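quick one if you have a minute, typing this from the bus. theres a chain ive been looking at and ive put its sequence and its fold in C-alpha cell form underneath. please have a look and point out which stretches look like helix strand or loop to you. anything you notice is useful, everything is just below.

***
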Amino acid sequence: MPVRVQKLIAFVSVAIFIGKIIAWRLTHSVAILTDALESIINVVAGFIGLYSIILAVKPRDRNHPFGHGKIEYVSASIEGVLILIAGMIISFEAVHKLIFPQPLQALELGIILTTCTGIVNYVLGSYALRQAARQPSATLDAAGRHLRVDAYSTFAIIAGLLLLQWTHWWWIDSAVALLFAVFIIITGYKVLRKSLSGIMDESDEEVVKKVIQYLEQHRLPQWIDIHNMRVLQYGAVLHIDAHMTLPWYYTVADGEKEIHRLEQLVRSYFGNDVEMFIHIDACASYSCKICSVASCPVRQSPLQAPIQWTPENVWIDAKHGKSANP
C-alpha cells in the first residue's frame, strides 16, 4: 500500500508542477512562482520517497539485520532540507519583487489553474496522511504533511491574488510570497527535526505509551515485571526489546511459552509487523512483594502491590521491587 500511494504522489506531483509553471508563465506572479518552486521539491521528494519505500519494505538480510526501514528517515531528511532551500529561494525572490514590483497579467486564468493544483494537493496529502497512520511510514507522513502545507500556501496565495486583483496593489504579490516563505521554512524544519530523531533512534513517546498501556491492561500474573524496554519504529516495523521477570522455578519451555504469549498479545493489537527480543530474568526474594502469582509454592513474603508499568519505569535496566523506589 505505501508503495502504491507514493507512486501516485510522485506522478501527480509532476502534473501539478506543470500546471503551476503554466500559471506562472501566464501571470508572472512571484507568489505563483513560489508555489511552482515548492512543487519542484514535491517532484524530487516524491521520487526519492518512492525509492526509499521500495527499499524499506525489503526483508532484513545479513547486511541489514534490522531491515531497511531507516531509509525512510533519510528520505524524509532530504525532503526537509529541500523544503528549507525552497523557502529561502522564495524569500529572495519575494524581497526582490517587493523592491522592484511589476504588474501582473492573465490573473483570472492563473488563479483558476492554481486553485485546481491546490485542491489536488490537499486531497492527495490527506490521503497520504491517512495511509501513514494505518501503516506507519515516515516517508508517507512527510510527503502528506508537505502536500497539505503546499495546499494551504496555494489557497493563501490565491486569496492574496484575489485581493491584488481587487485593489491593484502590486506589492501584495510579493508580501504574500514572503509570508508563506517563512511558513515553508518552519515546515521544513519540523520535517527535518522529525526525520533526524528517527535516524538517532529517538523514542516515539506516543508509540511507547500505547505499547506499555496495552501490556499493563492485559498482563498475566506470572509476568512479574517488565524492565529495560526499548520501543523503536523503523518504517512499518515495530521493534520491541525488553527483560521480563518470571518465577525462578519455570523451565526453559515454560519461559518460551510466556514469551510467545507476550508476542501474540502485542501482535493482536499492533499487527504482524512486530519484531520482539525478550530476555527472561528469574525472580528473586525481593520480587515476592510485587508478584501476583497466587499459587506460588516458594513465596517468601506476601504481595504488597504489583508494579504498574509506565513509560517512566519500564525503560530502567533493573528489576523492580529491589528498593522502595524502583
